[in-house]
Amino acid sequence: MHSVTIPSHPPTISSLGLHSLEFSKSRRIAMNGGALCAKSCLSVGNEGPQTKRDAVIIVDHGSRRQESNLMLNEFVSMFKARTSYEIVEPAHMELAEPSIRDAFKLCVQQGAKRIIISPFFLFPGRHWNQDIPALAAEAAEDHSGISYIVTAPLGLHESLVLSIFTSLISYALSYLVLKGCGE
């Protein structure tokens, strides 16, 4: 294992040289490895970018509505089925279980050595650059030798978001036509 000095706090947008969160600049940070890291998350060695010991935690805000929380579970199941990640767990930042700490523990119990925490959020904000990294750091305290990284939120991937919005608009317009409301 690589010996790495752990920073007292994960980097934030401002520590990466951004003082205002312009969309294009924040997108470049995300695309150029500007994820929030801790421990030896960048010390991949010869293992390559993904290993069998990598786990993914997909985290949303959490809701008082159980139906909303169950949607994350469905997405996590789909993600696991369609990717090569064997260890994938849902987590809610607050208001619901499992927490990031619970999901982190489950990943380690399944053999994870590196955990990728992917926020199911559209844009960066306080949850992305403060709350989730703080909760991840607290969870990691219980598991020495386990590294983690917090990925960029979805909205920083321009082509993905544009494609999704175009698809949603097309669907809505076709629905109007089917209902006889369109031109």
UniProtKB/TrEMBL annotation:
Protein biosynthesis found in the keyword field: no
Record Pfam families: CbiX
Keyword Amino-acid biosynthesis: no
Record's signal peptide: none
Annotated keywords: Lyase, Metal-binding
Molecular function via GO: lyase activity; metal ion binding
Protein name as annotated: Sirohydrochlorin ferrochelatase, chloroplastic isoform X3
Organism: Dioscorea cayennensis subsp. rotundata
Biological classification of the source: Eukaryota, Viridiplantae, Streptophyta, Embryophyta, Tracheophyta
